[in-house]
Structures are given as structure tokens and as C-alpha cells.
Design goal:
Elements (H helix, E strand, L loop, with lengths): L7 E3 L13 E4 L5 E4 L4 E3 L5 H13 L3 E7 L15 E3 L2 E3 L6 E3 L15 E4 L4 E4 L5 E5 L3 E16 L2 E10 L7 E8 L5 E7 L3 E7 L5 E7 L14 E5 L5 E7 L3 E7 L5 E9 L1 H4 L2 E8 L5 E7 L2 E7 L5 E9 L4 E9 L4 E8 L2 E7 L5 E9 L6 E6 L4 E10 L4 E9 L6 E6 L3 E4 L3 E3 L2 E8 L6 E7 L5 E9 L5 E5 L5 E7 L7 E11 L1 E7 L7 E3 L4 E18 L8 E8 L7 E6 L11 E9 L4 E7 L7 E3 L4 E3 L9 E8 L8 E11 L10 E5 L4 E3 L6 E2 L4 E3 L6 E2 L4 E3 L4 E12 L6 E9 L2 E11 L5 E11 L4 E8 L4 E3 L7 E6 L2
Length: about 800
């Protein structure tokens, strides 16, 4: 009998500090291999760091389920204020000295009620806001005692919400065809899709890039059948993790059908008939959602049944015809996914009853509840809010005694479905889908008292309080589908009767007007007030030991008030080593969380910043390296948080600062995802080559398809994460001056050094020239690539047109 070969083995804590050269060792608890060098013990992977890095990247790329969250500190929604000791001012996290005075409005001790006008102090919620119906309030603080100084810095925490106003309407549909069921949404590359059904033709789609350029336009998923008489909510969509767009239609002419297209509009799965309308009764409504296994859940209402079909990412059918409701018609459906609990909730308008059902990932019904009786023609919608960890729902309520409508808002616990409700005084007989906008939600409603009048309404998700209901949208018959485009602009698509006899569609856009909080200070009892910008030092003419503060709260709407949550008064500067930290609250993520990758926009100055990640809510913190995949010790937790320890050394003139970070979480699936670099960067504005006979870096600052977060839009360069061969493509259109002859050049630089001249010409005409070329280059992690342009004459302009000026990189191997 042969004996198996066994390596020297034991716990990692007992690993010896030295071993004979070539002697292998194995840790039984962490399953790592080490080898002796005669003087030390090193991990096997240390002999080939490139291989170790490549294996790490491949493991990361096995995940097709990921979630990316970017924090720019424009709000404090994801800041753990109790654990964060660093200052957060003006979108930056940086160490600060201990404040001389702190006000959190826990009491009214420093509220000067006699001089304040139009504001109220809420000590329960610790804030100052305008009184109801007041647009311009002013808050005065009582005198604050400070050390004798002529320099102070005010740090304030405020909420400055935006009120929306109707901007304009343009025609979306083309003439000569009958349109219905308009929808708008963004895909996973941040392109904006605007789609609608064209009767007996198919789905008309217009897809635009974030810079406004057209990606493609035309008919996708052609079909034959009448669609112009469909009730609203009989079409739905979902974008899967492969950036494919799935559509579902419930229609008595087409039946219940599901189809999908690739990101370029080509067919991935042609219409799949899950059942025919003629064989199963009238098909009324549909809803779709996506789980973390990249499975598409499709609900259909057919006559007296509500049924479920689940498709795998390859288009195969996983689950077929589960009847979840077997009595009464279902006129409205809305399904949503909860990534924390891996469950699907569906809201149903069944007869006069609003019901919610919860399903686990195995399609088992785990809970249901009847919320309320709605009455005739009630409409509903429902969303999952990852910040509040609640379902937010809306419904129109009909009161037969007064023949009037109201709007009811719900906040539902994701496990128990326990509800908090609020009834808004809005006489609406129909509400659109909800649109999340930070802490607020928008919806369009149809007035029951004003014929064909549609309004935009806004409410706060945290307490369901209504902010504004008065923004008029249109006076034409046609229900609305509001959405936010790839640039965060609120828009709406709606059927309209203002053109011809055929059904047409208008696209509406809205502009935001921001509420503001303005601080002013004085140290001479009000003789001279100075505007205090949060985080910036204020200098008085003479020193003083007393300070007065006043705050103006201005809003464009009487229904919308800015809020001041507190402020700090700071004197002095950093004169010793300061170690402070930033800690986040629970961040949006996949569930569970096996891996995470963190990048940060930081300035170290003379200090340092150490980063940590936790997937168990901060119970344990694990040190991480920026730009590298981090694998959690326990991949089953689902509460992702980030921490930064910021050290500012003694005598430093400037402290380290964090301007933002991006955190991508992922977990493992069975199917691999595309992972190679494939990005395009364009310019947001024209760039003037101000110096003649000088190579100038081209300011590409608008990346797309940058899944690996390798393009630095602030430094206008591509920074390699994975070693390999890359195809570099560059193009720039140089116009003006038109002096002839003119020498024009375009080149690639790697790590600041010339690599290849892509194009070099001498122009003898007075026209603009487009320079372009390509090169294949071997890159290592950390290498950076930039494009430079050159002109004989000063003031040549590189034109920011994406079809002419672009920077593309494709990983080949």
C-alpha cells in the first residue's frame, strides 16, 4: 500500500517564522500554501504576484450579480453621525478641530424666538424649518460665547430639497401610426430608453447615451396584433444583469407574451407565449421584476387568475403558471424585489381590495395582507426603498358617499407587512408609477374634478408627508409614465390628444428649483453681518468673545421647506496630530455579500487614510486596499459598510480629505460575466489648445461602459487594473484656427511618455481635420493611458462631438 504524501501542516497561528529552503507548509484553518526560503516563510502566491492578481480578478469576474454605489457626500443619508468623528463639509470628509460650540436643536436654549420669523423649532426631530405656508423664514440664534478670536468656521448640516416645475413638452411619436403604453427607464450602462407600443408593428425604442447622442432608434421585437385599446399597466419591462431588456405584454389579441432584446436592440428571445388570451380569458395586467440570480419574474393577470412565470437568464422557463390568486379580476399588478431578504413582493388590485403578497426565492407564498378597500377604478404602485428598508406604496381611494377620490400612501415593513399610512388630500382618480428621487418620491395624478388635468406630486418617503401637489403637467387626455433619465432629469411620457386623430405620445421634462439654507454671522452685535459658507473660515475686523448667527430658509414653494439639523462653531486650526474617522451606515449592495471593491477620490496631502470594509454591519472590520477585490471571511452576511481612518500629522498645513468613493459588491453565480475592459470616453465640452507647437492632454471626462471603474474622469486617463494586451483607439476633430498650412498631431502617451503617434498631417486647406488611429499595447496594473493633441497655431479647438472625438479601449487578452 502506498502512503499519501502529506505536507507539514497546522494552524496559521502556529506557522513557523522560518523553514528549510523549499519546504512546503499547509494551514489547515485557512487552506493556504507556504514555502520555506531558509530564512523565512512566504506564501506560494508571493512568487508570482501577476498570477495571483489574475486569479483574483477571474474569481471576481465569476459574479454576474453586483451592485455599485457611489458616494459624493452631497447628502448625509449614508453617514453614521454617531461614529463619524471627522468633519463633512462641502462634499468633503476631513479632520477638524473640536468645535467650541455645537447646536443639534435638542433644546430651545439657543433659539431666539422673539427675533426669528416664519420658522419653527422641532426638538423631537432636531431641526429648524419654515412654518406651513411660509416660503422665506429666518432663524436667529441667541448669543454664543467663543474664545477671543477674529476667525471662525461654521459647519452646518442642512437639507435643501428641490421643487419641480414643468419645463416643456415635445412630440416623441412619429405621425401615421397608433401608439400606446409609453415607458422610460435607464439601463445598466446609464443609457436612457424611451419605448412605446406601435399597433400591429412592435415596440418603438429610442435609446440615447448620457451625453445626449443617439445610441439607436427603431422597431424592436416586432409583432402583429392590436394594442391601442390596452388598459394601462398591461406592459412592463426589466433590465437584467447582462444589460438585456425584457418586456411583458398582457393583451387579449397577443395573449400573455414575454420577449427580450440585447443592449443594441437585437432580439435575444423572441416573443414567448406563456398562454393565449383566447384560451385563458381576457389578459388584463402584467408586472416584472429581477432577483439576484438574474431570473426574471413575470406576473400576469388572466381573467380570474394571477399567474407567475420565471425565466432564467438564458431565456429558458424556470417556473410555469403558479396561480397565486384564483378569484376576481386583477386590474393592477406591481412586483418588486427585496435584495436583503431575497424575496419578491407583489401588490394586487383585486376587485375593490388592495392586497400584498410575499414570495421567497423558491416561489413559496410566505405572507399576505389586505391593506384596504379601494373602490371603483382604484390604481396602485409599489417600490422597495433600500435606504429605509421598507416597501413604499400608493393607492387611489374612492368614497362613494361623496363620489370623491383621495390618495393613500403606505410604508410597509418588508417582513411583517406592518403598515404606516397617510392620506393625502388629493382628489385623484388615477396615479402613475412612483419615481424615487433621493429621500423623496414623485408621481403624476389625474384630477377627478378637472377634466384632463394632470399634476406632478412629491412626498417624503420617511414620513409620507406630501411636499407639493401643484405642478401642472398637461391638460390633454392620456396617462403618464414618469421616470428619471441617465442625467437624473425628471421626465414623463404620455399619450396625448393634441396632434391628430391617431394616438400620439409627448415627452415632458421638468426643471428643479432648489430650496436653500444661507448662514450669516456677526461679532459686533449685528452691525455687520458676513455670509458664512460651511467649512470656510470667516475673518472679522476685530476679535470678540461673542457671536450671533442667523439663517435664512428660502424655498420656491410654500409646501417645500429647507431644514437645518444643526451647526458647529469652530475657532483655531489643526496644530497637532489628529486621527479621526468616517463610518458609513448600511449601503446598497447585493445580498449576500461575498466580495467588494472600493475606489476613492481622496487627497492625502501629508497624512494618510486607511480603509476598512464590513459586511456584517460593522461588527467586524476588515482592512482593504483601494482598487483591489476584497473577499469577506464570511460571505453570507448582507450589511455592507465602509470606514476610513484619517490621520493628519502634527504641523501639517493641509489635512487629508475624501471627496467621494465608489463601492461595488458582488456574490458568486454559476454563470460567468463579461469582465474585460470595453469603454468609451468622450468630451463634455470643446477644448481650446491655447498654446502653439505644444502637445496638450485632451480632456476626456465622460466615460461609458466602464464596469471595472478604470477611467479617471478627473485626470482624463485610463488606469489599468488587469494586465494584458489592449487595443487603444483615439480620435479628435480639430477646428479653428483655419490658418494654412497647419500641422496637426494626435498621440498616445503611457505613464506620461510618448507611445505612438496616431495621426500626423500638415493641412493646406482651411477646414477642420479629424485625426484618428489605433495601437495595441501591453499594459500592467497601474499603467495609465492618455491622448494628447497638437497644433502649429494657438487657439485650435478640439470639438466635443462624440462621433468625432472619442477615446476607446478594449482588452484583447
Amino acid at each position: 500500500m502506498t502512503l499519501p504524501i502529506k505536507l507539514k501542516r497546522g494552524l496559521k497561528a502556529n506557522l513557523p517564522s522560518t523553514a528549510s529552503a523549499g519546504e512546503p507548509l499547509f494551514t489547515t484553518d485557512t487552506h493556504e500554501l507556504f514555502v520555506g526560503t531558509g530564512e523565512s516563510v512566504v506564501p506560494i502566491a508571493a512568487y508570482d504576484p501577476t498570477l495571483a492578481n489574475r486569479v483574483e480578478e477571474l474569481e471576481m469576474h465569476r459574479s454576474t450579480v453586483s451592485n455599485t454605489y457611489t458616494e459624493e457626500f452631497d447628502t448625509l443619508a449614508y453617514v453614521d453621525s454617531e461614529k463619524t468623528t471627522a468633519g463633512i463639509v462641502g462634499g468633503r470628509v476631513t479632520p477638524t478641530v473640536t468645535p467650541d460650540f455645537t447646536e443639534d436643536f435638542n433644546t430651545a436654549n439657543y433659539f431666539d424666538e422673539s427675533n426669528s420669523m416664519g420658522v419653527t423649532l422641532d426638538t423631537t426631530n432636531h431641526l429648524i424649518r419654515n412654518l406651513a405656508g411660509i416660503k422665506n423664514g429666518i432663524f436667529y440664534a441667541k448669543p454664543i460665547t467663543i474664545p477671543n478670536t477674529n476667525k471662525v468656521t461654521i459647519n452646518a448640516v442642512a437639507n435643501e430639497p428641490s421643487a419641480y416645475a414643468f419645463s416643456d413638452a415635445t412630440r416623441f411619436s412619429y405621425s401615421g401610426s397608433v401608439f400606446s403604453q409609453p415607458m422610460g427607464f435607464t439601463d445598466r450602462t446609464n443609457r436612457t430608453w424611451k419605448v412605446a407600443l406601435v399597433n400591429s408593428t412592435g415596440i418603438y425604442a429610442k435609446v440615447t447615451n448620457p451625453d445626449g447622442s443617439l445610441s439607436f432608434e427603431g422597431t424592436i421585437l416586432p409583432f402583429k396584433g392590436n394594442t391601442h385599446t390596452l388598459p394601462f399597466q398591461t406592459v412592463d419591462y426589466v433590465v437584467d444583469y447582462n444589460n438585456r431588456v425584457w418586456f411583458s405584454i398582457s393583451n387579449s389579441s397577443l395573449g400573455g407574451v414575454v420577449g427580450a432584446v440585447n443592449s443594441d436592440g437585437t432580439i435575444f428571445m423572441d416573443w414567448y407565449a406563456v398562454y393565449l388570451g383566447s384560451g385563458s380569458g381576457t389578459v388584463i395586467a402584467t408586472s416584472m421584476t429581477l432577483d439576484n440570480l438574474n431570473r426574471v419574474w413575470v406576473f400576469h393577470s388572466v381573467a380570474s387568475y394571477t399567474r407567475l412565470h420565471v425565466f432564467n437568464s438564458d431565456g429558458s422557463l424556470d417556473k410555469d403558471m403558479l396561480n397565486i390568486l384564483t378569484s376576481g379580476p386583477t386590474t393592477y399588478l406591481r412586483s418588486v424585489y427585496d435584495p436583503i431578504r431575497n424575496q419578491v413582493a407583489i401588490g394586487i388590485m383585486n376587485g375593490n381590495f388592495f392586497k400584498v403578497y410575499l414570495f421567497d426565492s423558491s416561489f413559496r407564498l410566505i405572507r399576505n395582507i389586505q391593506l384596504t378597500v379601494g373602490g371603483e377604478n382604484s390604481s396602485i404602485d409599489m417600490m422597495y426603498d433600500p435606504v429605509l428598508d421598507k416597501y413604499i406604496a400608493i393607492q387611489t381611494l374612492y368614497t362613494s358617499a361623496t363620489t370623491s377620490y383621495a390618495v393613500k400612501l403606505y410604508s410597509l415593513h418588508p417582513e411583517t407587512l406592518a403598515q404606516t399610512t397617510s392620506v393625502a388630500n388629493i382628489n385623484a382618480n388615477w396615479v402613475s408609477r412612483l419615481v424615487a428621487d433621493g429621500p423623496n418620491y414623485h408621481f403624476v395624478y389625474s384630477s377627478n374634478t378637472e377634466l384632463n388635468k394632470y399634476y406632478l406630486a412629491t412626498f417624503k418617503a420617511a414620513d409620507l408627508s406630501v411636499i407639493d401637489t401643484s405642478v401642472a403637467v398637461s391638460s390633454y387626455a392620456g396617462k403618464h409614465y414618469p421616470f428619471k433619465d441617465s442625467n437624473g432629469v425628471l421626465r414623463s411620457l404620455s399619450l396625448t390628444s393634441r396632434y391628430d386623430t391617431n394616438q400620439a405620445i409627448d415627452e415632458y421634462s421638468f426643471g428643479a428649483s432648489k430650496a436653500t439654507v444661507t448662514l450669516e454671522v456677526t461679532n459686533n452685535n449685528g452691525l455687520a453681518w458676513i455670509k458664512a459658507i460651511p467649512g470656510e473660515e470667516v475673518t472679522f475686523q476685530t476679535p470678540s468673545t461673542s457671536l450671533l448667527l442667523r439663517v435664512r430658509l428660502d424655498s420656491p414653494s410654500a409646501n417645500l421647506s429647507p431644514e437645518l439639523y444643526g451647526y458647529r462653531v469652530i475657532t483655531g486650526t489643526l496644530t497637532r496630530e489628529v486621527i479621526q474617522q468616517f463610518v458609513s451606515t448600511k449601503l446598497p449592495s447585493v445580498s449576500p455579500i461575498a466580495h467588494a471593491s472600493l475606489t476613492a477620490d481622496q487627497t492625502l496631502q501629508e497624512g494618510s487614510i486607511d480603509w476598512y470594509l464590513s459586511n456584517d454591519g460593522g461588527a467586524t472590520w476588515e482592512s482593504t486596499v483601494l482598487g483591489r477585490k476584497h473577499s469577506f471571511k464570511n460571505p453570507l452576511y448582507a450589511d455592507l459598510r465602509v470606514k476610513a481612518i484619517i490621520t493628519s500629522p502634527s504641523g501639517s498645513l493641509k489635512s487629508p480629505a475624501i471627496s467621494g468613493y465608489t463601492l461595488t459588491s458582488s456574490n458568486l453565480l454559476l454563470t460567468p460575466a463579461k469582465t474585460g475592459t470595453n469603454l468609451t470616453a468622450t468630451m463634455s465640452t470643446d477644448q481650446t489648445l491655447s498654446s502653439s507647437d505644444t502637445f496638450t492632454k485632451i480632456l476626456f471626462n465622460t466615460p461609458t461602459h466602464d464596469e471595472l471603474q478604470e477611467f479617471d474622469k478627473n485626470l482624463n486617463r485610463f488606469i489599468t487594473k488587469t494586465p494584458g494586451d489592449y487595443l487603444i483607439v483615439g480620435s479628435a476633430r480639430i477646428k479653428s484656427p483655419t490658418t494654412s498650412p497647419n500641422g496637426l498631431h494626435l498621440e498616445i502617451r503611457i505613464n506620461g511618455q510618448l507611445h505612438k503617434v496616431l495621426s500626423s498631417i500638415v493641412s493646406y486647406s482651411n477646414h477642420a481635420w479629424c485625426l484618428n488611429g489605433s495601437s495595441i499595447v501591453r499594459l500592467q496594473p497601474g499603467d495609465y493611458v492618455e491622448l494628447f493633441g497638437y497644433s502649429f497655431f494657438a487657439n485650435g479647438v478640439i470639438e466635443a462631438t462624440p462621433t468625432y472625438s472619442y477615446f476607446q479601449i478594449k482588452q484583447l487578452w
